[in-house]
Amino acid sequence: MLQFSDTTNKNGIIQRIEFDTGLGDASISDNAVLFSQVTSIVNSAVSKATSIIMTADGKWTWDDTSHEKQAVACTDIVTDQGDYTILNNTPSSAKDYLKIERVEIKDNNGLWARLKERNLPRYQDSITQRRTTTGIPTTYDFNGVSIFLDAVPNYDGGTNSLKIWFSRAQINFATTDTTKRPGFASIFHEYPVMSFMYHWEKQKGTGNPEQTKRDLVEMESAMRNYYNMRDKSQPNKVQRVYKSYK
Description:
By secondary structure, this protein is of the alpha+beta class.
């Protein structure tokens, strides 16, 4: 388990990079410009790991363990408003990689219901016409920025009457971070170090970047398998083999 920067016990990502590159102890942590440059590259590696995890995640929904609040955005349902820009109601640290997992709405009787997802190709009739039809919404469409409710609400739902559960990006490291760790499984905390070393070896023409690349690919594969298999607590359904008697 690696934290970002540990100048005491040398058990940090930065200290590992200082050692593996041969730059020497405190060569990065005591150099403000270099520290910022290295932090940027480390954050890019963590961002790639996040993308791999979110793509591979099974029935569980991954979330960076550094987030202090749940991945839920809320807004108010307003009469005759069918378009809601949820990014305005989402913390800036969660805007990247935003992926909706679930949407619930409160109806005009104060009862909650889940909305079904419906994207543009599934509309058989006129989208323009449907988005002028009023009533109690039963479906939604998400374009990456805004949610469109169908039907357009014909009532005021009150405070936080629309709730959106979502997957979100990691929280990036800052040079002031010390004890903060990558927000994914500790067995993959070496990934940003390896990723930086690959970048370093290519730029400096040193080491063995081909082998480092192979090690990176191997860890990425292990990462995909690990997060894809987290849903094993769900029972497998035994289905009969289809056989035609025609």
